Amino acid sequence: MKNIAVIGAGTMGNGIAHTFAQFGYQVHLVDISQNSLDKGIATVTRNLDRMLAKEKISNEDKLQTLANIKTFTSLKEGVHHCDLVIEAATENVDLKLNIFKELDAHCNAETILATNTSSISITKIASVTNRPDKVIGMHFMNPVPIMKLIEVIRGYSTSDEVTKTIMALSEKLNKVPVEVNDYPGFIANRILMPMLNEAIYSLYEGVAGVYEIDTVMKLGMAHPMGPLQLADFIGLDVCLSILKVLQDGFGNPKYAPCPLLVNMVTAGKLGVKSGEGFYDYSESRKAEKIANQFS
Ligand SMILES: NC(=O)c1ccc[n+]([C@@H]2O[C@H](COP(=O)([O-])OP(=O)(O)OC[C@H]3O[C@@H](n4cnc5c(N)ncnc54)[C@H](O)[C@@H]3O)[C@@H](O)[C@H]2O)c1
């Protein structure tokens, strides 16, 4: 495998492109928006500069990594002759099904089609292609260049051979792949989201305040970040939509999203990205909060 296409240049897509390019793969980064592509390359450049400043890479590594990424606004041109496509576009079922229909039409018959979806069924995505055995989940974690885990999700028809190829490729990126089956939330979100929801319920029911809930989990359970702050970082809209996938997929009321979460999303309080969630991220305080988080 040499040529990799990444669909979507947002938070995850640019991180995935960065990681493959740093390990010498030729990356085609595709987005419908030229602005997203420009922002994506700017983010990769900034992250490489940070690694350079910490002497984790040389200036030559930085330039080579950037040279390994080419950008495209045409999906058809971007996936031409690629051995693997990793879709990391917006989390929306219809959008992803359309992308996979197009990928199936434009990619070589041998090309493996992976998706970075957090919650959508791999089996469902595979069902709109003529190669369900070659469709697989490759769930990277944010920030991609730093986080070691890749949750590799086998759809109902994903072949052993394709799974083995993706597990081996993940190791070549110096990541740790873990194989799981395709059920709602996979493993990461099936376990994480109920915990975040329970933290929100604890706040809603007045058991404790934001600071107290996060401090118990940080200092008591050695979590690097409290659950309410983590929900803010993930995006409260994203948490809500994943909980709904769990609730619908299992038909079990234990996954019902807390009414406070629903209210906050309706009010546009989405966490870091909107400037306010459980914490205040208004411009003056945002940089300071984020800096404290990672110091
Ligand atoms: N953000 C996270 O922490 C995280 C973690 C793991 C997985 N994911 C998953 O990764 C995927 C991407 O999430 P994100 O946070 O990077 O989203 P994002 O909103 O930052 O980026 C999405 C990008 O997709 C582009 N896009 C939309 N439609 C497209 C199309 N038809 N063709 C090409 N590009 C298109 C948008 O222009 C945008 O640049 C989602 O499936 C999400 O569930 C996100």
What does this structure look like?
The structure is a single chain. The protein folds into 2 domains: 3-181, NAD(P)-binding Rossmann-like Domain (Rossmann fold), CATH 3.40.50.720; 187-290, N-(1-d-carboxylethyl)-l-norvaline Dehydrogenase, domain 2. The protein has helices at 11-22, 34-53, 59-67, 75-78, 93-106, 122-127, 160-172, 188-204, 210-221, 227-234, 236-250, 259-266, 283-294; strands at residues 3-7, 26-30, 69-72, 84-87, 112-115, 135-140, 149-154, 176-181. By secondary structure, the chain is of the alpha/beta class. Strands 3-2-1-4-5-6-7-8 form an 8-stranded mixed beta sheet, with helices on both faces. Helices cover 51% and strands 14% of the residues. Helix 5 (93-106) links the parallel strand 4 and strand 5 (112-115). Helix 1 crosses helix 2 and helix 8 crosses helix 11 (236-250). Bound molecules: nicotinamide-adenine-dinucleotide. The site of nicotinamide-adenine-dinucleotide has 24 residues, from helix 1 and helix 5.
